Amino acid sequence: xxxxxDGKALSEKLKKRCALESAALREAGxxxxxxxxxxxxxPASAVYVKNKKKDCEESGIRGESYxxxxxxxxxxxxxxxxxxxxxxxxxxxxxxxxxxxxxxARAVLMAIDPKKDVDCFHPENVGLMTQGAxxxxxxxxxxxxxxxxxxxxxxxxxxxxxxxxxxxxGKPMAMxxxxxxxxxxxxxxxxxxxxxxxxxxxxxxxxAGKLGLITRDMVKQGAVVVDVAMNRTADGKLKGDAxxxxxxxxxxxxxxxxxxxxxxxxxxLMQNTLTAAHGGKL
Length: 282
Hints:
Helix content is about 40%, strand content about 15%. By secondary structure, the protein is of the alpha/beta class. The strands form three sheets. Strands 1-11-8-7-5-6 form a six-stranded parallel sheet. A three-stranded parallel sheet has the order 3-2-4, sandwiched between helices. Helix 6 packs across helix 10 (about 260-275). The chain starts with a strand and ends in a 5-residue tail after the last helix.
């Protein structure tokens, strides 16, 4: 039976470390602060913001929440971001996505000061990461790498397949694995014979957001499977891309959903906020 990669337990450990670091920063005269902006009434986004507020409390970080209605105009959000950019006591800014239809998501990301972009979405931060000199690391991919490290899974020389090519997870996930000397294939919806490609993987990371995508015939014996996706079933349960019960007997390690990558994403966000409070030095 596979060993489950327990993201919940590791995230708690990381937040305790963050709390100690936060205390040291406060003693030195800096109170780390994360500002979270929620636009609209998306229920899932509201839950995420609530969880991030709890994470801040547990990590010794001052959390500020700003809420705007679905009808908010882009100029109102840009004015708020500009104000937060100019505040020296705010170290991280996070705008919760998705945004209502009237907003240009890219323009919103570009408006955030790169030194406060703790999600690591701004092109400047993506470029620094690509060049191997990151200011921050993208939260979900960095959370995956922290989980692998916690369990002694070294990507060096391994064949890794990342399913999904999003700017938020798929592409940066491939980049972080490459930095650790893995051989990386990025697969997606137009990859011919996806099952054959996935079966090559020593480490298979699925971030496609498609319930039931990863099946038993796509996983080789002894593979490490990291399921990044969070899909909601018809009865309201949270599931990943993988058919967990079917593939677990084949795996050496596997992440549960929930309780795997999700908590790690939020813990890395706390770490990035502290990095910003230190002046953006990893």
